[in-house]
Design goal:
This protein is an alpha/beta fold. The chain is 33% helix and 20% strand.
């Protein structure tokens, strides 16, 4: 055994201690994660045609250029596209088309720790169809009710008595086959946006004249009504009558919009934060049936030059109308933070 003098033992201990101190100085402490983003308003679009800016606009581009141009994308596992946020707490993303696609993206975003949605408002935004008896090309509609078109039993008309409905609700879906959106919030949306100057096009004005309905011939306007959610692009007067039948069967308002996502996205939001702060905003780019001289198939698959026109104007109209509400909420956040204020 080697024996050290007291002086050598002291020197050895001092060297060992200095080595430990040096090693501890090299230890890297992981930075704390940033606090979650406090989301005041979340804008959900379903698709974009190309890039988020600088080309032909789809549902997201006008929103992006107004609120997030230059913002860093936030990748969310499970979501179709990144989320963008600005310094004012306005966030948004493209969720994908259809009920499953959009709602799965919304769920992933809601559960991501980068965001705090506890006080957020939602604008479910996009394009849609409308029945010519109640709407027109270029109009913008705030949803009062969201009705799921698909949850039930449906059969072929030839297998039924003439003129009778070919749809029957299925029991068990009562809590999520229709949602009444907060009337106070819809009232605020209309108060803030009803007089928004809307874009129109000569192509849309010409196309409207093919229809005899007074509503179909109207210039674009801001209105309200039931939004009918279905994964099927239904066309024709028979399917339109069925949609209206379902809306009235469920106690909703007349349906004015046909779309593919809002009821499913709202169900996801309801299960996490409730529906009092949900808004559905749609712009009509087509009629859900042909004019009296046009077959349903011809309307569904129009020849070149026979489409409705007005798409680019409508997607801009949606953002013009919706941004009035978004801007008001953010500017007056102390009044909106704890819930929809009295008007």
């Amino acid at each position: 055994m080697t024996h050290f003098s007291p002086r050598r033992r002291l020197a050895f201990a001092a060297g060992l201690l200095s080595g430990i101190v040096a090693l501890s100085g090299c230890t890297t402490v992981a930075p704390s994660p940033p606090p979650p983003i406090q989301v005041k308003v979340f804008v959900a679009a379903m698709f974009e045609i190309g890039q988020n800016t600088g080309d032909r606009a789809g549902e997201f581009q006008h929103w992006y250029e107004r609120y997030w141009k230059g913002a860093a994308p936030i990748t969310v596992p499970g979501a179709l596209q990144p989320v963008y946020c600005n310094a004012d707490g306005v966030c948004g993303a493209v969720l994908g088309m259809g009920k499953v696609n959009s709602s799965s993206s919304m769920q992933a975003i809601l559960l991501n720790s980068r965001f705090d949605f506890s006080q957020a408002y939602y604008v479910i935004s996009g394009v849609a169809g409308t029945p010519p008896q109640r709407g027109t090309i270029g109009e913008v509609s705030w949803g009062t009710w969201l009705v799921d078109y698909d949850l039930g039993h449906r059969w072929a008309p030839e297998e039924n008595k003439a003129g009778e409905p070919t749809f029957m609700p299925r029991k068990g879906y009562e809590d999520y086959r229709r949602f009444q959106l907060n009337p106070a919030l819809v009232g605020w949306a209309m108060k803030l946006s009803a007089d928004t100057p809307l874009k129109d096009s000569q192509a849309a004005r010409t196309y409207r004249l093919r229809y005899p309905d007074e509503a179909a011939r109207r210039a674009p306007f801001v209105g309200t009504g039931t939004h009918m959610t279905g994964d099927t692009f239904f066309h024709g007067p028979g399917m339109s009558r069925q949609a209206q039948y379902i809306a009235k069967l469920y106690g909703a308002d007349d349906y004015v919009i046909t779309e593919m996502e809002a009821a499913a996205i709202t169900l996801v939001i309801k299960r996490t934060h409730g529906t009092d702060r949900v808004m559905s905003l749609r712009g009509a780019v087509n009629f859900d049936q042909g004019h009296p001289g046009e077959s349903t198939l011809a309307h569904l698959d129009p020849a070149p030059g026979e489409t409705a026109g007005g798409f680019s104007e409508t997607v801009e109209n949606v953002a013009l109308v919706g941004s009035r509400v978004v801007d008001h909420i953010v500017l007056n956040w102390p009044q909106w933070r704890d819930g929809v204020p009295a008007r």
